[in-house]
Amino acid sequence: MKTNEKKGRRAQRALTAAVLALAALAGKPAMAIDVDAGDYTALPPGTNLGLLYYQHVDRDRIYARGNQVSGGSLGSDVGIARYVHYMKLGNFTVDPQFLLPFGTLRGTNNLKALGNTIGVGDLILTATGELSRNRSVGIELGKGRELSEILGSTRRVAEGVGSTAATLELARRAEVEMPIAEQVHSVLTAGRVTRDAIRDLMERRLKQE
To answer: What does 49-64 look like in DSSP terms, one character per residue?
Structure first.
């Protein structure tokens, strides 16, 4: 087990070094910005970004419905390497990008069955931009427009509007709490003010989940 852990750490350090080297050798002037996860701001065309998201967690107890169900330890290191390139597409700025998830998992004692491994996920290719249908609906709601008015003024389908109710129904059947989806649904269908929805989420009582 110790040999596997050492190999996992070496592989993780090598991957991290490779991502940082890729970002350093992108060939464009570097710039640092503050990123707000709740907003999207297009950077100047030609801008390249190399980012690394990383989380380390150690757990020594596992809970289900508020009760401890297992002992042992479970450690995990999870990350996403991301590269973004901004470019012009007609009159719009878009950002084709790739995301590569990776991670390690280490279980001991009663949690050993959960694994002791390292892996890399599938490469994800995506892009965001001003043509996003769900984002456009959110922006218009933020301006104070009614949902029916927004949907009636476009022929495009914002699939997130309809799928929110379906998600909550599945969560209800599975007896799973989904507070974010609940607040999104209330904003969409009950006219709830976004600021109030965010406040309720931030002030939600902490508990084992």
So the answer is: EEEEEEEEEEES-EEE
